[in-house]
Amino acid sequence: MVLSTKLAGLGHAAFLFMTTARDRVSYIYPNVNAAGAGLLLSQSFPADSMNLSDAGYNMYHQMVDWLGRPFRSVPRHEVGPLRVSISRKLKEVVAEKYRNAGVEKGKYIVIHGIESDSKASMQSRGDTDCLLPIQVWAEIAEDIRGFKPLFVIPHEKERENVEEEVGDDANIVFITTPGQLAALINDSAGVIATNTAAIQLATAREKPSIGLFCSEEKGKLFVPNAEEKKCAVVSSKTGKLIDIDVEAVKQAMQIFQQSLALV
Q: Span of the secretion signal (predicted)?
């Protein structure tokens, strides 16, 4: 079986067809660009829009429903929530990175979502207003108690900017892949992030998190049932992330103190 979450036209569908997999499943364009694609796929799902991420957390609901369908003697079953496995080698590589940054396992809070003009931006596809300048992050990090803030940068050129705002003793780590980010979060005490992959990975690794969103609607869209996921959602009142209430973020940090009390 081959599953593709890329919107397929005739070209992408032909590529999937050439894999010779028994089941070739993909989303297809919601317009004329999908012409002929469905003929080469075992199962196709017309996208609701040109950007699947517009649907937030449930962006792949059609494919998830199809995967859980009854088949032969196997009854319908629910597809489980996102879980991320991390290899021992990857854990060792990441552990060396965060130790070099000056923090210890279980004693740091991951800070993710720093604004950057780098091509390696952390921006989410479904949310163009999802990053904050380091000046705001520095203000938020000042109130972290009991743990060290660990700033994740998308590119080494951002290191100087973080040190300039936070200080030369800032704990900074350059992470290059989603797998490394998952391993970093796995060894952390929790996460403070904007609407980036870090929030979903924190949920997958069952870590407490604070999610910062440009609006209440966006927060509900990307983190439904937030309380069950140990995620405190803080939303901007103006619809612009830059106007996020820093004091509200600081109050939400109680979620990490609860975690500390359980250690």
A: none
* Domain match, 13 and 112 both: no
38 and 97 assigned to the same domain? no
What type of residue sits at position 7?
L
When the pLDDT of each residue in the chain is averaged and rounded to a whole number, the result is 91
Task: Tell me: do 110 and 146 sit in the same domain.
Answer: yes
* pLDDT per position as a tens digit, 230-251: 999 999 999 999 999 999 999 9
Among candidate residues 7, 28, 25, 27, the one with its CA nearest the CA of residue 16: 25
Look at residue 188 and tell me if it is in a domain: yes
Task: Find out whether 139 and 202 touch, Cβ atoms under 8 Å.
Answer: no
What is the three-class DSSP state of 233?
strand
My answer on whether 26 and 132 are in the same domain is no
Q: How many residues does the chain have?
A: 263
Q: Amino acid letter at 171? A: N
**Residue at 30: amino acid letter:** P
Which residue's structure tokens are 């069950």?
Answer: 228
Distance between CA 60 and CA 52 in Å, rounded?
8
Measured between alpha carbons, how far is 64 from 256 in angstroms, rounded to an integer? Answer: 32
Task: Sheet containing 108-112: give its strands across.
Answer: 171-174, 148-153, 108-112, 190-194, 209-213, 231-235
pLDDT at 119 over 70: no
What average pLDDT does this structure show over 108-131?
Answer: 82
- Alpha carbon distance 193, 202 (integer Å): 10
Q: Match 């000056």 to its residue by tokens.
A: 102
Q: What is the pLDDT of residue 85?
A: 87
pTM: 0.85
